[in-house]
Write a structure and sequence with these properties.
Distance between the termini: 36 Å
Shape: extended
Order of helices and strands: HHHHH
Helix content: over 70%
Structural class: mainly alpha
Oligomer: single chain
Amino acid sequence: MKKQIGLMVIAALLSFTTANAQGGQRMTPEERIKFTIEKMAPLKLDADTKTKADVIIADYINGQQKAMDEVRESGGDREAMMAKRKEFTDARDAKLKAIFTEAQMKQWKDEIEPSLRPQRPAGGGGGGK
């Protein structure tokens, strides 16, 4: 009897863990801002530049979120969403380029920005059978 209960507990834990691993929650804009600012630590920004970068990142994420919500409400056209995202990203990068050194901008583009994109599981993620 104890073995059966133990096996049921293990099975329940495994199913719970699997279910949680598959359905990741989206971060709120505030969480995304905090996450992005934390990722910028390797740039070793001085206080003034950090303050300016924090404002640029917050404006970028809040503006992008608002625009994406508007696109979704109007039907969710994928092409429109991609165009809006590129527009916001280009504007953010132009603002960051104005305050970062060349080395910091290179590090942003090569290391930090790619680490901010949502990671998709390996293997495609095709539909179930």
